[in-house]
Write a structure and sequence with these properties.
With 527 residues, this protein is α+β, with helices and mostly antiparallel strands. The protein is 40% helix and 18% strand. The chain starts with 9 loop residues before the first helix and ends with a helix. The model is unreliable at 1-8 and 83-92 (pLDDT under 50).
């Protein structure tokens, strides 16, 4: 008997089905349908799991969700595990201490031992046109920091571990400066230096804000975050809170799913020490090469000798017809643009390297726990989706295989990559990754939607970035209907001409493979 047929469960069944339909944006989805067959993916799964926990008070285990054969099976799981809902972040005025999360501890200790460690920071820049009140903006930033504990967190080593401290009242302000009459290129050169300036991790806050006044109603707003306290997903929470204060004068009540990061960090260590380490090591050992030396993927143009020099970047606008082809193919193949575009990258890598099995580096948001989906903090982990690639087959089949490898990586991506890699290859050094690889990510531009109220226009301002890790790093970034490809690399590893050629071939392959997904890929890709 189905859940809907049991007395008292029809409303719960309808609620679970409704959450799935909303995430898939398809009211024709039925209870007996499989979520992933109907176009679901890891990002949409995060939305579904979060809404189930917030609205129905049930934390469905991620593995149970991934392996459910139908939406009805998920609803049965919800009914059997129904429990009280989620926690909310504290915003008290006391100091809290605890152990840093696994990623925080690894990054802090690695940086302290390696004078050439990469600067783990990220930023977002906005052009603000209109009457900006910088005093009011400064007060709004302080209100957002009071709400989010990670924005008041500092770190210090305690032997071989790292402690985090949430400070009640760190000094938080908005830097301002005049930069009138200066050209865009000179301003961008200054800002690139500003966003790379490192933080003292022993003192909060580990983020800063700068308003550059270019004219009476023309400003550039820069927000810089140490990765120790936030990730890209966190930026959307930060921007949402800041917009609320700037437009209404106050913060709304804490959103569900805003649990304290320090509590999550403590839970992560407990899971790791209670058997999760063995589970992840077993899974990834079945996916990755036997030898650590085979893990680093080098494309034919690689010329590295060990020393990283000349950090470089390339940014290309994706042709509107190619961006449209990707959207249409994603709908037709019932896969996300992330999975479809990753399949293109894997096909091209397989062609140029001759590898029948391709491992790419990518990022897992690691937000499956609905109690923390709106928490500012460092949750994201690196993962290594690995797929067999047969170029004599169709692109449609490859997309299906990539989707499965991405789902597997998401289900096994809840711990930092370095801990997992050392579990497989204990001989690896404990610091930052030194071997090259090919990284790929597709995502919306983080932090869009900043709102300062009527009469003020806020638009993203994109700075040219530089590489800070070995290998080839590629992002497809979506902003509305437009796409751009950003590639970061060291010229000492990959010459600029090679990167430009490879990026051009990638965009060409994107149009060709999505345009004819049922033809053999070997007939479409240029030798």
């Amino acid at each position: 008997m189905s859940l809907a047929a049991e007395p008292g469960h029809a409303a719960l069944h309808d609620a679970v089905l409704g959450i799935h339909r909303a995430a898939l944006e398809d009211d024709s989805v039925l209870a007996e349908d499989n979520f992933y067959d109907m176009g679901g993916d890891s990002i949409l799964a995060l939305q579904v799991l979060g809404r189930i926990e917030r609205e129905l008070g049930v934390k469905v285990p991620a593995q149970a969700f991934f392996t459910a054969e139908s939406i009805s099976e998920v609803a049965v799981r919800v009914a059997t595990e129904r429990s009280p809902g989620t926690g909310a972040a504290a915003s008290g005025d006391t100091t809290h201490r605890g152990r840093a999360s696994m990623a925080q501890e690894w990054a802090f200790l690695s940086a302290s031992r390696d004078p050439r460690a990469p600067v783990l920071q990220f930023h977002v820049v906005f052009r603000v046109r209109g009457p900006l009140d910088t005093d009011r903006l400064g007060a709004a930033l302080r209100a957002v920091a009071r709400r989010n504990e990670s924005l008041r967190t500092s770190f210090r080593a305690e032997g071989e571990s790292v402690a985090l401290t949430v400070e009640p009242c760190p000094e938080i302000g908005l830097e301002t400066m005049e930069y009138a009459g200066v050209g865009d290129a000179d301003l961008d050169a200054f800002l690139r230096g500003y966003v790379r300036r490192p933080f003292d991790r022993s003192r909060a806050p580990l983020w800063r804000a700068l308003a550059v006044r270019r004219g009476a109603d023309d400003h550039v707003l820069v927000l810089v975050f140490d990765h120790m306290i936030a990730d890209g997903w966190s930026l959307d929470t930060f921007v949402s809170d800041l917009s609320a204060v700037c437009t209404t004068g106050e913060l709304p009540p804490p959103a569900a799913g805003s649990g304290a990061y320090a509590e999550w960090a403590a839970g992560q260590w407990r899971r790791w020490e209670s058997g999760r380490q063995q589970e992840l090591t077993s899974y990834w050992r079945s996916q990755l090469p036997t030898e650590a030396a085979d893990f680093g993927l080098r494309l034919p143009g690689y010329q590295g000798t060990g020393e990283l020099a000349k950090p470089s970047s390339l940014v290309l606008d994706v042709a509107p017809e190619t961006a449209r082809a990707l959207r249409e193919a994603s709908q037709a193949l019932r896969a996300t643009p992330y999975c479809v575009s990753m399949a293109v990258v894997k096909a091209l890598v397989a062609q140029v390297t001759g590898r029948p099995r391709v491992t790419l580096l990518t990022t897992n948001a690691n937000r499956l726990d609905g109690a923390y989906q709106n928490t500012v903090g460092w949750f994201a982990n690196g993962v290594f989706p690995t797929t067999d690639v047969d170029l004599s087959g169709s692109f449609r089949d490859l997309v299906g295989a990539v989707r499965q490898s991405v789902l597997g990586a998401t289900a096994h991506g809840d711990m930092p990559a370095m801990y997992v890699r050392r579990g497989i290859w204990p001989q690896l050094p404990a610091g930052f990754r030194k071997d090259p690889g090919v990284y790929f990510m597709y995502n919306d531009v983080w932090g869009s939607g900043l709102d300062f109220g009527d009469g003020i226009e806020v638009t993203p301002h994109h700075l040219v970035e530089d590489a800070d890790s070995p290998g080839l790093h590629m992002w497809l970034l979506r902003e509305g209907e437009t796409l751009r490809l950003q590639v970061l690399h060291y010229a000492s590893e990959y010459p600029a001409d090679y990167v430009t050629d490879f990026a051009g071939r990638l965009l060409a392959a994107l149009g060709l493979l999505t345009g004819e997904p049922d033809r053999p890929m070997s007939e479409l890709l240029t030798p």
